[in-house]
Design a protein that fits this description.
Oligomer: single chain
Shape: elongated
Pfam families: Carb_kinase, YjeF_N
Largest sheet: 9 strands, mixed
Structural class: alpha/beta
Cofactor: Mg(2+); K(+)
Strand order of the largest sheet: 13-12-11-14-15-16-17-18-19
CATH class of the largest domain: Alpha Beta
Number of helices: 18
Radius of gyration: 25 Å
Subunit structure: Homotetramer.
Bound molecules: ligand LP7C6HRI, potassium ion
Distance between the termini: 15 Å
Number of strands: 19
CATH superfamily of the largest domain: Ribokinase
Number of domains: 2
Helix content: 40-55%
Strand content: 5-15%
Protein name: Bifunctional NAD(P)H-hydrate repair enzyme
Family: Belongs to the NnrD/CARKD family. In the C-terminal section; belongs to the NnrD/CARKD family.
């Protein structure tokens, strides 16, 4: 499991070490320089003779970058530091100068010659590596956007680099972010709005912000939430965490990301004496005559995920389609350990809406875990419970929140997904799984998971139905453990997201996938996870 800690927790953990004189910055800079050396070797086949531009802000983040620059210079790298502030970290600047490096400044009164931002950008764009040390965890929460001359350099260089990457020419620099890409909301993963004066706004998803997207982020002490949470995580590139020896045992992780071995540990593996009822029964209310396919996909995923039994509730026509595709399914009502409600359900179909309401009453009265998706998201009471997992995409979350008095649209959810997923949890008391390229899960006690396991090919019709069926199977399989452990629901939701993403890879590595193929890849995917 990868765990991220807030800026405040990392600072608190640094304090005793700094007070004891532990040279944390030297450790950070040494590790940072090591990553740059590896990148230079891999990309350019050499270290000495390469060119590195260090973008350095006023604080210790700039200090890390300057010290790393000095170490690189001693290995024959031509290092140019570009100051984005009037004053730079004192010992970092001294180290850089004594290693013979040049310093220029885009800030008035800064060290070295004053240069125009355009000249500094040209130097950076033609370098082999750019170190982004403008701003680290020192920005004020909610005001993370870089201010001053550094903002212009990062924004314009960011656009050039993005164009070059999109064109695939491969002649741009490798961008290494120091601790975090400068300007991201360190704790919330927000990305500042381009041109925003104080960083109070966020950039719409997909638009460039004043953030220089990194190829690699070298983060110190522990990963920060922005490196896992969208939209900022899209600017982090590969994340390399450097152990500084911080004791974070007293701090609560702010965000977690499950890895395959965590998913394997969470997966319900039947004991020898298992029978179908001990393995869990999933009840599915999905599909209407207009959307029968959603029902087939949902039950297929539940069956392939390895549940004891699937019960299906729907119209006779859809039931016939379901049973003809999945003969394992039992039609009609009966005792279940978990529900999946909503895929392909048209809320105006009164018979299906009534089944959803009936199931929900049992869910709340008997503490039965449930997945609520798609059409059923508009059929909910005001208050739910943590054992109910809502699985909206951004548009559905905006609708759900708007129905509860929040003034928010889809673009705002995409710009600040963690904030709005948290708000939905507060308002409904349910566990919220917000689907996206990085899926967020917010559960009891504000436990947050961020999973980025799926190929972009998985953005296809029916993929959500498969996730719902898969998660339903997982909840049914672990239903007995959920009673005493409400936080397990969020972990299982994150686990389902991981397995769903991996199943898409397994279904067709590197190429397009159909939702049903993802469901059919679940048995192999789970077997691989359990074997590894
Ligand atoms: N303490 C250590 O030995 C270690 C620190 N590490 C690195 O330090 C940074 C955090 O450093 P800090 O000095 O606290 O903050 P920053 O460098 O991120 O920036 C503060 C600096 O920037 C100015 N500033 C604040 N907000 C803005 C803004 N919105 N725009 C522009 N400039 C801004 C402010 O005036 C300050 O001067 C951490 O990220 C690590 O990289 C290492 O972990 C090693 C140990
Ligand atoms: K940085």
């Amino acid at each position: 499991m990868i765990v991220a800690y807030t800026a405040a927790d990392v600072r608190t953990a640094e304090e005793p070490l700094l007070a004891a004189g532990v040279p944390l910055m030297d450790r950070a800079a040494f590790a940072l320089a090591g990553v740059v050396v590896r990148e230079l070797r891999a990309r350019r086949g050499r270290v000495a003779g390469s060119r590195v531009v260090v973008l350095a802000g006023a604080g210790n983040n700039g200090g890390d970058a300057l010290h790393a620059g000095a170490l690189l210079a001693r290995r024959g790298v031509a290092v140019l530091a570009v100051a984005t502030a009037e004053r730079l970290h004192e010992t970092g600047l001294a180290a850089l100068r004594s290693a013979g490096c040049s310093v220029v400044s885009v800030a008035d009164g800064g060290p070295g010659a004053r240069v125009w931002p355009g000249d500094a950008i040209a130097e950076a764009f033609t370098a082999d590596v750019v170190l982004d040390g403008v701003l680290g965890i020192g920005a004020r929460a909610g005001h993370s956007a870089v201010r001053g001359p550094g903002a212009e350099v990062l924004a314009l260089l960011g656009e050039l680099v993005a164009d070059e990457r999109a064109g695939g020419r491969g002649d741009g620099p490798c961008v290494v972010a120091v601790d975090v890409p400068s300007g991201v909301g360190v704790d919330d993963g927000d990305v500042p709005r381009p041109g925003g004066s104080n960083g109070s706004g966020s950039a719409p998803a997909g638009e460039p912000g004043a953030v220089l997207a990194a190829d690699v982020t070298v983060t110190f002490g522990a990963p920060k939430p922005a490196l896992l949470v969208p939209p900022a995580c899209a600017s982090a590139g590969r994340v390399e965490a450097v152990d500084l020896g911080l004791d974070l045992s007293g701090a609560r992780p702010a965000v977690a990301r499950l890895e395959p071995r965590d998913a394997a540990a969470l997966w319900p593996v039947p004991p020898r004496a298992a029978h179908k009822y001990t393995r869990g029964v999933v009840g599915v209310v999905a599909g209407t005559p207009a959307y029968p396919g959603a029902a087939v996909l949902t039950v297929s995923a539940a069956v392939h995920a390895g549940v004891g039994m699937v019960r299906y509730l729907g119209s006779p026509g859809v039931t016939a389609a379901v049973v003809s595709h999945r003969p394992e399914v039992v039609a009609g009502d009966g005792r279940v350990q978990a529900w999946v409600l909503g895929p392909g359900v048209d809320p105006t179909d009164s018979a299906q809406a009534e089944r959803v309401h009936g199931a929900l009453a049992g869910v709340l009265a008997q503490e039965l875990p449930a997945v609520v998706d798609a059409g059923a998201l508009t059929l909910l009471p005001e208050r739910l419970a943590p054992w109910v997992v809502l699985t909206p995409h951004a548009g559905e979350l905006a609708t759900l929140l708007s129905a509860r008095g929040e003034d928010v649209d889809r673009a705002q959810v995409e710009a600040e997904p963690l904030r709005w997923a948290r708000r939905a949890r507060e308002l409904t008391r349910a566990t919220v799984l917000l689907k996206g390229a990085t899926t967020l899960v917010v559960g009891p006690d504000d436990a947050v998971y961020a999973q980025a396991d799926a190929p972009a090919w998985l953005a296809t019709a029916g993929a959500g139905d498969v996730l719902a069926g898969l998660l339903g199977a997982l909840l049914a399989g672990r239903a007995q453990d959920l009673a005493g452990e409400p936080s397990l629901v969020a972990a299982l939701a994150a686990c389902a997201s991981l397995v769903h993403g991996r199943a898409a890879h397994v279904a067709n590595p590197g190429g397009p996938v159909a939702a049903l193929a993802v469901a059919e890849a679940l048995p192999r995917t789970v077997a691989q996870l359990l074997a590894s």
